[in-house]
């Protein structure tokens, strides 16, 4: 999704961001080396397991590493999936409609992995906008109505910090990776014994 190029002249009014398009294109997600089971994804995103399960079953946020195949199998979420889960939670907490959240999630799926870190998502409750520059944020605020914004880079760092203290799983070998939580000495000892 592109924006009109700005040439930096002071005489030009800031460009208003364009709404996140409602598109059904296929997502192309970056391959990652670590996956996170449901309880870990919940802890990092600040959601309940019930929410996670519902969102996966309804297709709002499905695990990109490994879906559940019947009872007894474990879903495995990528880092990017966990960032999206936390964004969905924040939008829901502010009253953004589920339809608009679905549109925003589809847009996030289509973005490059690195692009997410520099993005700000804004919503006026009716539409979700992607802003990639301070001028776009300013132009949106000039509309005079209430706006809610999520700096995806901040969410990214929050999730990164949370996951560094939790367990992950190597996608290629299934090996459990122990987080940097000093209180989890027993898990570290178990992992060394294997």
UniProtKB/TrEMBL annotation:
PROSITE patterns: HTH_MERR_2. InterPro entries: DNA-bd_dom_put_sf, MerR-type_HTH_dom, MerR_fam. It comes from the Bacteria. Keywords: DNA-binding. It comes from Streptomyces thermospinosisporus. Residues 44-107 form the HTH merR-type domain. SMART domains: HTH_MERR. Residues 1-29 are annotated as: Disordered. This is MerR family transcriptional regulator. It holds the Pfam family MerR_1.
């Amino acid at each position: 999704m592109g924006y009109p190029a700005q040439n930096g002249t002071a005489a030009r009014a800031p460009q208003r961001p364009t709404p996140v398009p409602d598109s059904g294109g296929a997502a192309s997600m970056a391959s990652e080396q670590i996956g996170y089971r449901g309880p870990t994804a919940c802890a990092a995103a600040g959601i309940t397991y019930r929410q996670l399960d519902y969102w996966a079953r309804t297709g709002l946020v499905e695990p990109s590493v490994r879906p559940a195949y019947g009872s007894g199998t474990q879903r495995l979420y990528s880092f990017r999936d966990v960032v999206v889960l936390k964004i969905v939670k924040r939008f829901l907490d502010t009253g953004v409609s589920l339809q608009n959240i679905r549109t925003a999630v589809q847009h996030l799926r289509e973005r490059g992995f690195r692009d997410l870190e520099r993005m700000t998502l804004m919503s006026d409750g009716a539409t979700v906008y992607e802003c990639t520059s301070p001028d776009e944020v300013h132009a949106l605020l000039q509309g005079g109505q209430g706006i809610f914004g999520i700096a995806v880079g901040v969410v990214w760092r929050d999730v990164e910090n949370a996951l560094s203290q939790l367990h992950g799983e190597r996608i290629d070998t299934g090996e459990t990776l122990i987080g940097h939580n000093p209180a989890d000495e027993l898990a570290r000892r178990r992992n060394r014994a294997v």
